[in-house]
Design goal:
Helix 2 crosses helix 3. By secondary structure, this protein is mostly helical. It contains 8 helices and no strands.
Length: about 140
Amino acid sequence: MKALHAAGLKDVVPGSYYSEAVKMIYTWKSQFPDTYRAFEAQLNHTSVEKFTRSLKKFDEGALNRFREIYPALTSGASFNPIVDDEIVAVYQSVNRALRVKHGYSGIFIIFDEFSKYVEGHSADRFSRDMKVLQDMCELCNA
């Protein structure tokens, strides 16, 4: 996100942000009813269902509104949901948005200090992390 913002591409948002926002709303509804009610109140005259549908349709305005509301409901925390498990989907989503919105033909991914990446993994996580790496390499090749 920092690189996209630095390049003036603030409108390129990974797709996982939308799905994570929806998940957070469902979590509030099922586990934190007070937060859910506060969220409902912040939406003014829009229903949560309609707002959630907008997020599922990748509505940028809805995501921006969610990002505005989020700190008020979480004691000032920023909404920054990217997790390593979704990294391939994040790159796919960003690449697609750069092509569609800005006319780029793709992105270059440079993996520096590769040996440090390999050396820095414990035996119990190595297999899973190598799968993520393989998926990234396949994505780059595609």
